[in-house]
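#lab-general

N.A. 3:47 PM
ok so I finally got the sequence cleaned up, no stray characters, all 139 residues accounted for. can someone with queue access submit it? mine expired

B.Y. 3:52 PM
send it over

N.A. 3:53 PM
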Amino acid sequence: MRTLLLLAPALMLAGTAGAQSNTSSAGTSSPTTGDVSAGTTSSGTSGDGTVGVSGTADAAAANGGTATTDANARFNTANNTARQRSTATARDDDERARSRSMTNVNPNGDVRSNSMTIYKQRGEKPVITRERTVNGEPK
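B.Y. 4:20 PM
back already:
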């Protein structure tokens, strides 16, 4: 099993006191019945002149399969924005799973999180799971 954790908070210097605080998070994972699994999470926060994002990625593959994970974050201190993205992929001869989560903190303070997972067995239709939140509210 391969796990990657990214935690990247940033403190912004240009902010106003008493600003509204927003948080949002999203995460999905593939079914655990097969030989492969992939899952990701992503979250963010904004308020009082600060923004922060974090995320995780986890992938596992049995029976000689391969698993990869990746996560990255970007911050723009000029306009109080942040972005985080996590991806995880696992596959073997007859199954594959992929998961992606992303969070954006916008200049107006909105925090948007999206996550999607696809799991597919050979000869079957893919199972797709999606989650989206804006300022903590499902959309």
